[in-house]
C-alpha cells in the first residue's frame, strides 16, 4: 500500500470538491436496498469466505512478486477463484512493467566489529559488483539531514538513513519511512554514494525481518545498490557507529532489472441487471512483495473484495449496477495495474459510480471518508448508518481517495471512498517475511467483507450517482 | 540452555538428598554478611553494569557459534572485560570440541505449490548433496508418532515432525521441542529417512525466524540433513499437506563437521581472603547460536555473573571465599565447557561451596530451589529472605541443579541452586535471529545481578558449607 498523511489543506479542499453541482437532485439509497445491505452486512460478519480466499491464495500461490515465477500462477488462481465463486464475467487486462529480479542479498559489518546484518534489497535496486562492495558508512537520522549534507561527505560511501517510525492507527508514520525508501536512494545516487541503506520503513523493533519496498529509481542507469536493514540491525549498526570509529560494511546484492514483463489485472464482474455499463469498482492487488506470502499486503484486499462480491452474488437477483472486482497487477513496484486500468478506462470515468480498494491489511475498518458530489452526501450518510454498527465512523471532513490502485481512477474523476483499516501493527509485517496468513484474524477480515458488501451494494442500487466525471475531484487532496 | 521438566520423583529425591549428614552443625550466614548482601542487592537493582556488559559483548563480538570466527574474539573480549572490571585473577582453561560449520541453507516446497520455506540447519546436521535433495514429505505430530511409524513409510522421505510448544513461565514445553530436535533426527536417520525437518522448538507463532539447536548426532556417519522450519512455515507446510496431495520439498544445506577446535572456558576470580581455595562458582556460557547475537542465550548469563562479581569487587574488602565467574565454552553443541570444567575440577568438588549458572534469558528471577545438605537449609532460608524482596520465592520442595554447564559439577557432588528466570517469552527468541540486545530489559537484568551478587556473597561468607562432596547429590533428580 501507499499512504501519505492527509493535510489540513486536503480537508478544506475536500469540502469544496464538486461544489459546482450542489444544485443536483439528491442521490439516495432506496430503503429496500438499505435493508438488503444490512442483511448482507450481518451475514458477512459470520461468514468465512474472505478468510478462505486469502488462505487459498497464500497457501496455493504463496509469494507473488510482480513478474516473478508466481505472477502467472497468481493470475491463474484469480481467474479460477472468480469462476468458482460464480462471478458472471471473468477476464484479464494486460499490464506491462519492468521486470526486477531479486536473486540474493547479504550484508556484514567488516570493521571494527565483524558480524552479519539482516538486509533485504529494495525494488529497482542495482546489484553490487560480483563479490560485493565494501565501503565506509555515513549515517543520517532523516532524509532532510541527507539533503543538507555536503556531497563530498557522501561520495563513495554507503549512506545509512536511520529515520524512525512509530505505530499509529492510521499508519501515518509510513509517510516518513516511505519517503526515505523512495527518495533516499535517488538522492544518495545523485550525491555519488556507493550504496544506500535505510532503517526499514517498519515498526517491529524486535524483529529481524527487514522491510523491502520500492525505491524511486526508474532509470536503471541512475540506480545504485539499495537495501533495508531490520530495525534491530539498524540499532546495532547505530551502536557500532557510536564507538566513533570508521565503520565499513560489505554489501553483496544480486538483483536488478532484466527486461519487461506483461502480466494482467484480473477482473470478475457481477453484471448489473438495470445499468450493466455502470460500475462499482472494488478490489485489492494481486502482487505482493516476495519475502512473505502477501497475506495482509494484499491477499486480504483481494479476498475482501472477492468475498464481498460473493455475498452479493448470493442474493436472489443481481444488483442494478455492475460490481467489478479487480485484482490489480504490480501495485508494489509503481501502481502499474492501477495506472493501466485508469488509462484504459479513462473515458468511462463517469460510468464508475463509486469505488475503493482495500490495501491496508486485514484489521477492522474504523473510518470512512468520501469524495463525492455534495448532493450525494446524503447517500454516503445512508451508507455510514449501515456500517456504523460494525464499528466504522464516518468522517465527513476528509476526502476519500479510492485506495492505492483505484487512486488513479479517482484522479481521473471517479467518486471514491476510503475505508481505513486499523493499521496499528500493519507496519510490523508489511513487506517482510512475516506477512503471512497467521497475521489475519478471520473475524476482523469478515468485518471488512461486511463493509465492502454493504457499501458496494448500496452504491449499485442508488437512485442517482456520486459525482464521477472527468476531473471532478482533482483538487480534493486525497492521497490514496 | 537445556531444561527438562522436574518430576514428582525428583521432588521426593530432593528431600532425601544428603539426609545422612543431618546431624551436622548447621551452616549459617553471619548477620554482618546478610546486611552486606542486602546492600549489594539494593545497589545492584539500580546499577547498569550487567546491561553494559551484555551490550558490549553483543555489539563488539556479535554471534558466537562455537568454533566460528568469533569464538576467539569472544574469549579475547571476556579476558579483557574481566580485567577491565578489576577481577583479581583472569585465566582460561582449554576445551576441545567438534567443529561444525554452517555455510548456507535453503528449502522450498517443489510441489504441489512451489514456494520457499524459512529454514535453519541444526547443529551436527549433515549437508545435502551439492545442488540439494528433493523428496516427499511425511508428517508426524509428535516424536512418539514417529517412533511408532513403519520404517518403510519413512525410508527415502523427508520426515517432518510438527510438535507444538506453548509458553510457560518455567519453559517446560521445551522438553517437547528439544526432545524432537535432539532425538528426532537420530531416529529418522535410523529409519532410513532422507532428511529431517521439525517445527522449530519455539513459541513465536507469528515470526518467520526458525530456531536452530543441537541434534543428537554425535557420529557424523549417522547424520542426515536436519533443519528447523519457522512456526509460520511449519503451519504453511501443514496446510499444504492438508490438500491431500503428495508434497515434495527441496532441501539444500551446506554444513557439516570439518574437524575439531580448541576453545576455552574464560574465568575471572575474586580471590577469597580467608579460604582462597574454596570456590563459589557462578557463570554463563560465552558461545551462542549464530543467527542472533546471543543476547538472552547467553550473553545475559555471562553479564549477570560478571556484574555480580563486580558488585562484590566494589566492597571494601574481598569476601572470605573465592568467587569464580566462568564464561563457559560451547554449551550449545553439547555442554563441552561444562563437562571439561567438571572433568578438570572433579577432585575439587568439595571445595565448590555452592554454585549456579544463569542460562535462561534475562527476565526476572522468580524462584529459587536448592540441593544442599539438610543442615545448610537454614542458610538457604537466609539467602531466600534477602532475595524475596526483589521477587524471588523459595521453593524448598525441588532440587537445584546448578544451570546448564554447572549441572556437570553438580552431578559430581557440588551443592547447587537453581535461580529460575521468567521464561514466558524465552522460546520466542531462543536460538533465532531475534536473540538480540533489544530483548533485554535493563531493569530485569539488574534484578538478576542483585540476586547473584547477594547469594554468592552470602555463600562466600557462610559459617560452614552446603554439603558439596563426591556424589553428594547424585539422586536429587535435578535436571539442570
TrEMBL record, chains A, B:
A Gene Ontology annotation in the biological process aspect, one of them, is:
proteolysis
Give the location in the cell. Endoplasmic reticulum; Golgi apparatus; Lysosome; Secreted
* Signal peptide bounds: 1-22
Which keywords does UniProt give here? Answer: Carboxypeptidase, Endoplasmic reticulum, Glycoprotein, Golgi apparatus, Hydrolase, Lysosome, Metal-binding, Metalloprotease, Protease, Secreted, Signal, Zinc, Zymogen
GO molecular function annotation? carboxypeptidase activity; metal ion binding; metallodipeptidase activity
What region holds the Peptidase M28 domain? 265-454
Main localization, broad class: endoplasmic reticulum
Gene3D superfamilies (UniProt xref): 3.50.30.30, Zn peptidases (3.40.630.10)
One Pfam family named in its UniProt record = Peptidase_M28
Record's keyword annotation contains Glycoprotein: yes
Against InterPro entries, the record matches this protein to: CPQ (IPR039866), Peptidase_M28 (IPR007484)
PANTHER family found in the cross-reference section: CARBOXYPEPTIDASE Q, PROTEASE FAMILY M28 PLASMA GLUTAMATE CARBOXYPEPTIDASE-RELATED
Under the subunit heading, UniProt states: Homodimer. The monomeric form is inactive while the homodimer is active.
The protein's name in its UniProt record? Carboxypeptidase Q
**Native source organism of the sequence:** Dyella marensis
Amino acid at each position: 500500500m501507499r499512504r501519505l498523511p492527509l493535510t489540513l489543506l486536503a480537508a478544506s479542499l475536500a469540502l469544496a470538491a464538486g461544489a459546482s453541482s450542489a444544485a443536483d437532485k439528491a442521490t439516495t439509497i432506496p430503503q429496500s436496498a438499505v435493508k438488503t445491505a444490512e442483511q448482507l452486512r450481518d451475514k458477512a460478519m459470520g461468514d468465512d469466505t474472505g478468510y478462505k480466499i486469502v488462505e487459498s491464495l497464500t497457501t496455493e500461490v504463496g509469494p507473488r512478486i510482480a513478474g516473478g515465477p508466481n505472477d502467472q500462477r497468481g493470475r491463474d488462481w484469480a481467474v479460477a477463484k472468480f469462476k468458482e465463486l460464480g462471478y458472471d464475467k471473468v477476464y484479464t487486462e494486460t499490464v506491462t512493467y519492468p521486470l526486477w529480479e531479486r536473486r540474493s542479498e547479504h550484508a556484514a559489518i567488516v570493521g571494527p566489529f565483524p558480524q552479519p546484518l539482516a538486509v533485504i534489497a529494495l525494488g529497482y535496486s542495482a546489484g553490487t559488483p560480483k563479490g560485493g562492495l565494501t565501503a565506509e558508512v555515513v549515517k543520517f537520522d532523516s532524509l532532510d539531514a541527507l539533503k543538507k549534507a555536503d556531497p563530498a561527505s557522501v561520495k563513495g560511501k554507503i549512506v545509512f538513513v536511520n529515520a524512525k517510525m512509530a505505530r499509529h492507527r492510521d499508519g501515518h508514520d509510513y509517510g516518513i519511512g516511505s519517503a526515505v525508501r523512495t527518495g533516499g536512494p535517488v538522492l544518495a545516487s545523485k550525491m555519488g554514494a556507493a550504496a544506500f541503506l535505510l532503517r526499514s520503513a517498519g515498526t517491529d523493533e524486535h524483529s529481524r525481518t527487514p522491510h523491502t519496498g520500492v525505491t524511486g529509481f526508474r532509470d536503471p542507469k541512475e540506480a545504485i545498490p539499495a537495501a533495508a536493514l531490520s530495525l534491530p540491525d539498524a540499532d546495532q549498526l547505530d551502536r557500532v557507529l557510536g564507538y566513533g570509529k570508521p565503520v565499513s560494511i560489505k554489501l553483496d546484492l544480486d538483483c536488478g532489472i532484466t527486461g519487461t514483463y506483461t502480466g494482467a489485472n484480473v477482473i470478475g464482474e457481477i453484471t448489473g441487471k438495470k445499468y450493466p455499463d455502470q460500475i462499482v469498482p472494488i478490489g485489492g492487488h494481486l502482487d505482493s512483495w516476495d519475502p512473505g506470502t502477501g497475506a495482509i499486503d494484499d491477499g486480504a484486499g483481494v479476498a475482501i473484495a472477492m468475498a464481498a462480491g460473493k455475498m452479493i452474488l448470493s442474493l436472489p437477483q443481481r444488483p442494478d449496477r455492475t460490481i467489478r472486482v479487480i485484482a490489480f497487477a504490480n501495485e508494489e513496484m509503481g501502481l502499474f495495474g492501477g495506472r493501466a486500468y485508469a488509462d484504459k478506462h479513462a473515458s468511462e470515468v463517469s460510468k464508475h459510480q463509486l469505488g475503493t480498494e482495500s490495501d491496508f491489511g486485514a484489521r477492522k475498518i474504523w473510518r470512512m471518508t468520501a469524495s463525492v458530489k455534495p448532493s450525494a452526501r446524503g447517500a454516503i450518510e445512508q451508507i455510514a448508518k449501515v456500517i456504523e454498527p460494525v464499528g466504522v465512523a464516518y468522517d465527513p471532513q476528509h476526502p476519500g481517495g479510492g485506495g492505492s490502485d483505484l487512486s488513479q481512477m479517482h484522479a481521473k474523476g471517479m467518486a471514491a471512498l476510503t475505508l481505513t483499516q486499523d493499521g496499528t501493527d500493519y507496519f510490523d509485517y508489511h513487506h517482510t517475511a512475516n506477512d503471512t496468513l497467521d497475521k489475519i484474524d478471520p473475524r476482523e477480515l469478515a468485518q471488512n467483507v461486511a463493509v465492502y458488501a454493504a457499501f458496494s451494494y448500496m452504491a449499485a442500487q442508488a437512485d442517482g450517482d456520486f459525482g464521477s466525471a472527468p476531473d471532478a475531484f482533482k483538487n480534493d487532496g486525497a492521497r490514496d
